[in-house]
Amino acid sequence: MPAPRRTGRAAGIATGWLADLMFGDPSRGHPVAMFGRGAALFERLTYADTRRAGVVHTAALIGALGATGVLVERATGRAGQVGVAAVTAPATFVALGGTSLARTGDQMAAHLNAGDLDSARRLLPSLCGRDPSVLDAEGLTRAALESVAENTSDAHVAPALWGALGGVPAILVYRGANTLDAMIGHRSSRYTRFGWAAARLDDAANYLAARVTGALVVVCAPVVGGSPLGAWRAWRSDAARHPSPNAGVVEAAFAGALGVRLGGPTQYAHELEIRPTLGDGPAPKTSDLARAVRLSRAVQAAAAIVAVVLSVAVRTGRRASPPS
């Protein structure tokens, strides 16, 4: 990719991140929500209790997003740096969810500090898919902290990195894959087979980002009075025991950085999972959730800087033609 277009991509990622920092997710008409509604309607046509049907469903939707991204970049790329920035910025803004994640984490901490468990239970589904009705204050705190950790990678680091590496098509494909995983990737009786492809695609799409996030947690831990060495040790010793190849990395790093213990019995609407423990500290308190949110914000800022630098450095596509 010619240098002016790489600069335009970097400017677009920076602008999209700043927009997310200022505004967060729009409350109405969010394109990701619109994609989700379209995917749900499409599922009525494609659903069957087989992996093959799930592959067709996932490939069709993700392929459409990728093709849209390619067409948009080609249509505006002729304008050079300005055109690339003009399409990368809104795509980045739409894909990032880090600011809304942090705001929701802060709201959870406030409800728990006030002892308002009913409000905390009502808010939890906006963070994760666990059954809040069976959780006490300690369970709500752990669920929220684990969700803040995992989604720091999924909702911010991953889309920023994919934008740096592949521009608008990669951003759209990543966000689509992550949305489909949230919709059909869980192990319920309906989606064990149909959602297999979406879950595996999301695992692959988040593999690099989870490890970059883990490294940034190590670097940023002192911002919240945390331990870089503790984050590294928990990552290396505990992450591989987690059922997710990616969430385990990030949750373990957060646990070690904050000096708390995560994992254990985890109740979802469709099943109870007995997860291994991550970290060797005590169960997290509400103050630890607040620290986790601050750590997430620090990691998000560091990831945005990494993505901007990477987008300038990476070379993709054909080399620029020499002047005639």
Secondary structure: helix percent: 55-70%
Using the alpha-carbon principal axes, give the shape.
globular
Number of domains: 1
- Summarize the main sheet: 2 strands, antiparallel
Task: Note the total helix count.
Answer: 11
Between the first and last Cα atoms, what is the distance in angstroms?
A: 18 Å
Quick one: how many beta strands?
2
Secondary-structure element string: HHHHHHHHHHEEH
Explain what you see:
- This protein is mainly alpha-helical.
- The chain has one domain (3-313).
- The protein has eleven helices and two strands; from the N terminus they run ααααααααααββα.
- Strands 1-2 form a two-stranded antiparallel sheet.
- α9 (228-238) runs antiparallel to α10.
- The longest helix has 48 residues, at 137-184.
- The two termini are 18 Å apart.
- Mean pLDDT is 91; it is low at 317-324.
- Keywords: Cell membrane, Cobalamin biosynthesis, Membrane, Transmembrane, Transmembrane helix.
